[in-house]
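Side project, low priority. Logging it here so it doesn't get lost.
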Amino acid sequence: MAERLVFVTKSKQPFHEERSVKFKWVAGQALSKKRECASNLVSAAAELHGLKCVMEISRASDELGQQFSAFRLRVRVSPTEKPTTVEVVYQNSKVWAHARAESEFVNYSGSAFDAKKRANLRREEGGKLRDFCVCVDGREFHFDLEPKDAFYNWLYIKALRQKHNERLVAALESRICQECRVSDLRQIAHLGENCRIGFTDVFFNPQKGKQYNCQARALAQYISLRIYHPEQLDRIFPPHEESLSAAGDLEESFRKYVEFVHEQSPDGSLDLLL
């Protein structure tokens, strides 16, 4: 047996809920074995927590789920550059306390594994992680380390809202609607606890200690906003953007995201965070 998390949609902050799932583990390093594990995880999560729809988001998923992996999901930084993956941008955005200038390391090309290697080399040189920095058309935008998962989730959702991913996101929403037996995603908001959606990542094991950011968590948060707070989603993450450079002040976008997702208003409501 093994234990992993399923990230479940939620109408209130932080717009996802983490639930533990025990499932049958299939030993072996082959991808076919990982896919068996992922299938067992999805089935166990649905049965244990009464979820209408559960999707694995990793290379062990079906083709649709694989495309939402941060190693596959594309994000365009600038209209003059080709789209790269969320993982590449995330790894290249890490700024270390004693490293050289961030602009020396701007490289949104190559694979996610290459980006991870570069980040590790900079960590050895620079020590403690200081913040995140995205360079867009020669301009640097800086993002705080806290809340812990905020920058990763913000970047992931930014990618989902870009124009080149519209068909992909529509396919996901269509799958969810079909399994929940509704014609429109927003109808799920009226079904309450009778229709919750979950996302898993069989490779994400927080018990290993250093792992925290997770594509399944980010996607659960996006779907929660899409179902329960579509107006706020449009305000914070305008749809149909061609690239990050079209978003204007990225730091302001990040601030709005953190306020709405992580910071409760004084009276406990969400209405003041407009």
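Brief comment: Residues 265-274 have pLDDT under 50 and may be disordered.
Revisit when time allows.
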